[in-house]
Amino acid sequence: MQGDITRFLEPIFELAESRKQQHANFVSQIKSLEKNSLFSPKDLEEKGIKIPNEFSGKEFLGFLLHVNAEIEHGLMIQYLFAAYSLGGEQIPEAYRDLVRKWQEVLLGIAK
Predict the structure, then answer these.
(1) Sign (positive/negative) of CA torsion 27, 33, 37, 41?
(2) Are 110 and 80 in contact (CB under 8 A)?
(3) For a tag site, which of 35, 40, 76, 89 has the least CB within 10 Å?
């Protein structure tokens, strides 16, 4: 019975081990890229960019991109609300095309 379990699980363990090695290689390549980056920390500080000690340069960039995405998402809601609040029957016929263009602009920004 033990032989059957080993026979079935051995390929899974081999695959896991090879993926573990691939991951280790990938991490070492990323670390070497960070060491050989185009900008040293001194160059960044001269440009007024201070990376907190808790982050590497790549992690800090990812953090800033996440913050930016959250801000953009919040603004998208505002643009959608504004766009769908425009128009309606209360707008005089002469201005409906103009208001529709405003709505299209706001929806385009939201997209």
Answers:
(1) positive
(2) yes
(3) 89
- The CA distances from residue 28 to 20, 21, 68, in Å, are 12, 11, 29
Closest by CA to 58, choosing from 80, 87, 36, is 36
What are 13-23's pLDDT values in tens digits? 787 888 888 88
Give 42-82 pLDDT, tens digit per residue. Answer: 766 777 778 788 888 788 889 999 999 999 888 898 999 99
Closest C-alpha to 87, from 105, 110, 109, 111: 105
Over residues 4-19, the mean pLDDT reads 76
Residue 86 near residue 99, CB atoms below 8 Å:
yes
